[in-house]
Design a protein that fits this description.
Layout lengths: L3 E4 L1 H5 L8 H12 L3 E5 L8 H6 L2 H4 L1 E5 L4 E4 L5 E4 L6 H9 L5 E5 L4 E3 L5 H10 L3 E3 L3 H4 L7 E4 L2 H15 L3 E7 L2 E6 L4 H12 L6 E5 L5 H6 L2 E4 L5 H6 L2 E2 L7 H9 L2
Helix pairs in contact: 2-12
Length: 267
């Protein structure tokens, strides 16, 4: 049996309505009862994982939160941060100045709010809603953020987001990790931060190898951990690029695709 199960949230752990189905929840709790440790591995900020941490009872059963695409790793039982990486000082201002005349929104986060000085668009509203966080609109984001942040997020329609991502990678690719987690989200992270790098830190912390790890996902930001894990799983609804690197393709998130994986590797 494998020992650790890393799960992306949106499109993987949850169905199209952002809920964990009864069948998936039962399978995951049974796996925990057999000693499996679950890692919720998401681009979401840490507070945005609390709902699912509570539903899975990870504070009691043991588990971990890999948030901000790996920039922060938290032990659910103790609440301790095992690892945290933040953007360099001045990064928010540098990014803000570069994109201020582009047709994109920009957000970052404090402990319990989404922060922006952009016009609030549908993508920001989605980000706030799925994380259960309010949006706080400030006068000038670059001046307001005088504290360390784990990531910045740019929002725009698909084609615009892709073009902006390419420009940012060309301009800042040596300084930051820049990629899309969704067609309309451009993530700007500390350099060399991704889900795989942080899962390696967790393996070291637990004294296991990546062969003990199963990682499941559906989006662009899941590719690194799916390639890294002993068993990399793409959901049936995953992007084609994700399926290409996976060892296993399971059912969709609306078909309880995780149940087969749990049964095969943890039960």
């Amino acid at each position: 049996m494998k020992k650790v199960l890393a799960l992306d949230i949106d499109g993987t752990l949850t169905d199209s309505k952002k809920n964990i189905t009864d069948n998936t929840l039962a399978a995951l709790k049974s796996a925990c009862d057999r000693g499996c440790k679950i890692v919720l591995a998401s681009g979401r900020p840490t507070p945005g994982l609390n709902r699912y941490k509570n539903e899975l009872e990870l504070e009691k059963r043991g588990g971990y939160l890999l948030s901000f695409n790996g920039a922060r790793l938290t032990d659910c039982v103790t609440g301790d941060e095992i690892a945290s990486q933040t953007l360099p000082y001045g990064a928010v201002r540098k990014i803000h100045d570069y994109v201020k005349d582009m047709p994109v929104g920009m957000v970052t986060y404090d402990s319990d709010e989404v922060l922006t000085d952009s016009v609030i668009d549908e993508y920001m509203e989605l980000e706030a809603r799925i994380n259960g966080l309010p949006i706080k609109q400030v006068d000038n984001l670059a001046e307001y953020v005088d504290f360390p942040v784990n990531k910045c997020l740019l929002t725009a329609p698909d084609k615009v987001a892709y073009e902006v991502m390419l420009k940012l990678q060309e301009e800042f690719g040596e300084e930051f990790s820049i990629y899309r987690s969704e067609p309309f989200f451009v993530e700007i992270m500390p350099k060399n931060v991704d889900k795989a790098a942080t899962l390696q830190k967790l393996c070291d912390y637990l004294g296991i190898t990546k062969d003990d790890l199963v990682a499941c996902g559906d989006g662009y930001n899941d590719v690194s951990m799916i390639k890294f894990a002993g068993v990399g799983v793409a959901m049936g609804n995953a992007k084609p690029e994700v399926k290409e690197v996976a060892d296993v393709i399971t059912g969709t998130n609306d078909e309880d695709g995780l149940v087969d994986i749990v049964n095969k590797y943890f039960l």
